[in-house]
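User: Predict CRIB domain-containing protein's structure from this.
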Amino acid sequence: MEIKGHDHHVGNYGGYLKCDACDDRPYSHGIHYCADCEFTVHDKCVFVFSTPETFEHRSHVGHCLKLLTTGAPDHTDQKCHICGKNTKRLLYHCSICKLNLDIDCMVDDMCARARTSEYVVVPSSSTLA
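Assistant:
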């Protein structure tokens, strides 16, 4: 299975693993696992990968944030700049400002924009890193 934003092939897995999107563990089926980097995501969390690969967050106007599935780059603060929680492996990142947002804060913003029609989509062909 190919997951947008993840560089490796992700296969099905039948054991108990912690999901990198929701941090939940109680699933023994419906899990997708990357043997190359040990990335794990539940079926119920795959929707995160249908969100735009690059996204403009209203707290960070002027630069787009890009979805990363391998954790925050080493040269950045590992915490979300909005809520202060550790970003884990799945996050949105601004390479210009070295800023990180966790998935919960991004999804909350996407839902708020959908309700108010303020959704800004940037083409995935963007060359942001």
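Residues 117-129 have pLDDT under 50 and may be disordered.
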